[in-house]
Design brief:
single chain, about 170 residues, alpha+beta, three-stranded antiparallel sheet, 6 helices, about 15% strand, globular
Length: about 170
């Protein structure tokens, strides 16, 4: 079968545990709050498999955008792994959905990357792979997200921010 069926057991209990213990998500006055979400499907073992992590202010609108953009050949992200994977799931008649992982998040990339690391590492630990052996469709082989996933010393959004700042400074020096 296709990569849509590569995902294995283990998510439902893990998600209920980590959602309850997720990052700070502090509310700052005057900022529009975001939600961190996952796109997921249920595998042959009745286990939820998250294949993409994103953020939005409107979860229903974002779900509709993913559903439409996956089939819009003129969309800039048409050929991304997330949309290729959605089309693969649809071809196999495997339903996929969107689930909120964390609410009330100020918009910063570090909060989203914290969840990307969390889900990607869990997928790796459970031998879940999507395209090119990657644990999430957010990733590309050799990109900085793959680099962060390998560095197990990074787990919180504060550590993500510090790592990204160090990386930015190193690039400026080079």
């Amino acid at each position: 079968r296709t990569s849509a069926t590569v995902c294995l057991r283990g998510y439902i209990g893990w998600l209920s545990h980590t959602s309850a213990t997720a990052g700070s998500g502090s509310v700052e006055k005057g900022l529009k709050m975001h939600k961190i979400y996952g796109l997921a499907f249920i595998d042959q073992y009745d286990t939820a498999c998250i294949f993409y992590v994103g953020h939005t202010t409107d979860i229903d609108r974002r779900f509709r955008e993913h559903a439409v953009n996956a089939y819009n050949k003129n969309h800039a992200e048409y050929d991304t792994y997330k949309y290729q994977f959605i089309r693969s799931l649809d071809e196999l008649n495997i339903p996929w959905s969107i689930s909120v992982l964390e609410e009330q998040v100020t918009h910063d990339d570090d909060s989203e990357y914290e969840w990307i690391l969390r889900i990607a590492r869990d997928n790796e630990d459970k031998s879940r792979q999507f395209y090119h052996g990657l644990p999430l469709t957010n990733m590309r082989a050799g990109d900085f997200v793959e680099e962060m996933v390998r560095d197990r010393s990074i787990s919180t959004r504060q550590e993500v921010g510090a790592w990204r700042e160090r990386r930015r400074q190193q690039r400026e020096i080079s």
